[in-house]
Design goal:
By secondary structure, the chain is of the alpha/beta class. The chain has a single domain, classed as NAD(P)-binding Rossmann-like Domain (Rossmann fold), CATH 3.40.50. About 45% of the residues lie in helices and about 15% in strands. It is globular, with a radius of gyration of 17 Å. The N and C termini lie far apart (about 35 Å). The structure holds nicotinamide-adenine-dinucleotide.
Length: about 250
């Protein structure tokens, strides 16, 4: 049987790969033969690189702030300078706001979430696509959220940013559909990562949250990786501009 998700000789750039969904997906890509470049503000991403190398894979960490254009441009340049190409990107870095109703949210808090969760995806798309155009194509997956499809309480900046990521995904897909570049998104539901640790440790909050999920549990970060590897691969060659929920049935419910 051929391996339908073989990434041998492919170069994959992942933001937010120090922990959580990005780390799990970096390891999944590397396990399929990809050379992985991780852009993250967290130097802990060196541990993801070390784990990939110990398993016989190839990876590089480039300290990157996705909200800073020069930093994102340098990340793409370092990828191409090191490995000679950029085939796929997973724009996944993100943060949550401090939970608060909209009128009590500070302008600074709103701007911070938008700058990382939305502007960061725009900047990644901008510099990745600029390179992919010269190279003849590529595929990109952005991390949205179920909060990009339905609102959650007390997280207006995040809801706005993630709705924006789904919009950016559609817009970028349209702009480059005829130039060999596909752009899709995943919309994770509740995933057990550093981001949601506080929610899951709060027994009452966690019980109420799990009641909204037909599978009645949070996902493990590894459960997001399969969709990303599929969408990035030639198996998904007729799919672009789409957002796929990976949510244990939360939105369909
Ligand atoms: N965990 C969930 O339930 C859930 C649900 C839906 C969507 N998401 C989204 O999934 C993505 C990954 O989150 P996670 O759950 O793995 O959380 P996480 O906190 O484990 O990972 C987020 C990563 O992004 C990095 N990051 C933060 N700000 C950055 C910046 N300015 N520049 C570069 N890197 C930065 C962090 O260092 C971290 O490595 C996020 O976009 C998040 O919004 C998570």
């Amino acid at each position: 049987m051929p391996n339908l998700l073989d990434y041998t000789d492919k170069v994959v750039l992942i933001t937010g790969g120090a922990t959580g969904i990005g780390q799990a997906t970096a390891k999944a890509f590397a396990g399929q033969g990809a050379k992985v470049v991780i852009g993250d503000v967290n130097e802990g991403a060196t541990e993801t690189v070390a784990q990939i190398k110990r398993a016989g894979g190839e990876a590089l960490f480039v300290r990157t702030d996705v909200s800073d254009p020069a930093s994102v441009e340098a990340l793409v340049k370092a990828t191409v300078d090191t490995y000679g190409r950029l085939d796929c990107a997973f724009n996944n870095a993100g943060i949550l706001p401090t939970a608060t109703p909209l009128a009590e949210m500070s302008v600074a808090d709103f701007d911070k979430v938008i700058s990382i969760d939305l502007r960061g995806v725009f900047l990644c798309l901008k510099y990745q696509i600029s390179h992919m155009l010269t190279a003849g194509g590529g595929s990109i997956v952005n991390t949205a959220s179920v909060a990009g499809l339905i609102a959650g309480r007390n997280t207006s900046s995040y809801v706005a940013a993630k709705h924006g990521v789904i919009g950016l995904t559609k817009a970028a897909a349209l702009d480059y559909a005829t130039q060999g570049i596909r752009v899709n998104a995943i919309a994770p539901g509740l995933v057990a990562t550093a981001m949601t640790k506080g929610w899951l440790e709060d027994a009452d909050f966690s019980r109420r949250l799990l009641q909204t999920i037909p599978l009645a549990r949070p996902a493990e970060p590894e459960e997001m990786s399969g969709m990303v590897l599929f969408l990035s691969s030639s198996q998904a060659s007729f799919i672009t501009g789409q957002t796929f929920t990976v949510d244990g049935g939360q939105v369909p419910r």
